[in-house]
Amino acid sequence: MIQTRTLNAEAARADFPILGRRINGKPLVYLDSAATSQKPAVVIDTMDDYYRRYNANPHRGVYAISEEATAAYESARQRVATFINAASPKEVIFTRNTTEAINLVRYSWGRANIRSGDRILLTEMEHHSNLVPWQLLAQEVNATLSFLCIDDDGLLELEQLDRQLEGVRLLAITHQSNTLGTINPIKAVAEAAHRAGALVLVDGAQAVPHMPVDVQELGADFYAFSGHKMCGPTGIGVLWARRSLLESMPPFLGGGDMIRRVRLNEATWNDLPWKFEAGTPSVAEGIGLGAAVDYLTQFGMDRVRSHERTLVDYAMEKLQEVPGITIYGPRDSEIHGGAISFTLANIHPHDLATLVDREGIAVRAGHHCTQPLMDRLGVAATTRASFYIYNRVDEVDHLVSGIQKAQKVFA
Ligand code: 7TS
Q: Does 104 contact ligand 1 (Cβ within 6 A)?
């Protein structure tokens, strides 16, 4: 039974050993959780315990520790399924990360279903992970890509959605932009796509860690996310899809574990979810993700979201006061998740990130793997501050004073 905890960032910080570090003599202010979150001790210890006490290849051995490894790995899958309200753990495919989950759909469903002349609809704010795989598929089968545009507030322009969905086989869209912070209205967009006969893939890399996600309620067909952005380890991600859809899809990678019976010239496939999990899985990482899901569940994702809203509201207020700043994306925290991108008139984002690092502040500078979005915004790069459960409002103050110090250097 998971006990409920209130979300007190100060108390949560004690769970994260790395937050005790000092950088350049200053306490670490970690504002790059959109790139990867920090890990609570319970996740690190759970993985350590697996290696120390029951490391074995799951699904194979009939001996005790292999059965323990299988049980722990499959129990993690069950907990992930509950976390996103999947109808069954069979709908939860473990992958390496969001990128691999999207590529699984590209190779399996995409190659079997997208034909010459078909259209794939994307948005201008996609991470390269939800863009390049579709470019590659489109080139391979001679399909066409088209894009939902954004307005100057960083919101999708949806007035023409029904018209843009004509002839579309797949809509692939991010739930929350990693650069703008924009939260897209997935449910409404998915309903429109389904009316037009298209399937919907949602890139949930920035959503599942930060807000309640109910895949059944959202109505998407595919939903992808990464463990490492939600307090879990690297090397484990998830593709969720409805069972009937997964049943109809050919395998992705071939090898051990994904088969039922192999003869020299042919093979038949294992049941879901293992049909899509070839080879020895990331066992420690899967078990670690299960611990991360339990960790987040103690707080409740509604509380995680409202904590981040408080930080975004405060950061918007404080950052707006910085002279020469341009903030991208919507201002309203109702539709803005915990990542804020900005530029300063006279300082390059990389210089700013380097200067605030001297103050112990970790922010990301660059194109954030959204180069087409940078083109749309008319910049080469932005600085991005992104928040999570362990961030406090006074860390926003540190960021603002770090920016002011940097401005003095360049004055
Ligand atoms: N989609 C979105 C929206 C993302 O933000 C990211 C990673 C990915 C996909 C890819 O996830 P991966 O786990 O497969 O790599 N985003 C970022 C970022 O914003 N900074 O570093 C990685």
A: no
Residue 123 near ligand 1, beta carbon < 6 Å: no
Q: Is 210 in the pocket of ligand 1 (CB under 6 A)?
A: no
Would you kindly state where each structural domain of the chain is located, as residue ranges? 9-30+300-409, 45-297
Cα angle 164, 102, 107; round to 5 = 95
Alpha carbon of residue 44 to chain centroid: 20
Does residue 149 carry a catalytic annotation?
no
What pTM was estimated for this model as a whole? 0.98
Per-residue pLDDT tens for 34-45? 999 999 999 999
Give CA–CA dist 43/49, Å, rounded: 10
Domain 9-30+300-409 has CATH 3.90.1150.10: yes
- Fold annotation for 45-297: Aspartate Aminotransferase; domain 2 (3.40.640)
* C-alpha to C-alpha distance for 34 and 124, rounded to whole angstroms: 19
Task: Look at residues 34, 361, 330, 365 and name the one whose alpha carbon lies nearest to residue 184.
Answer: 330
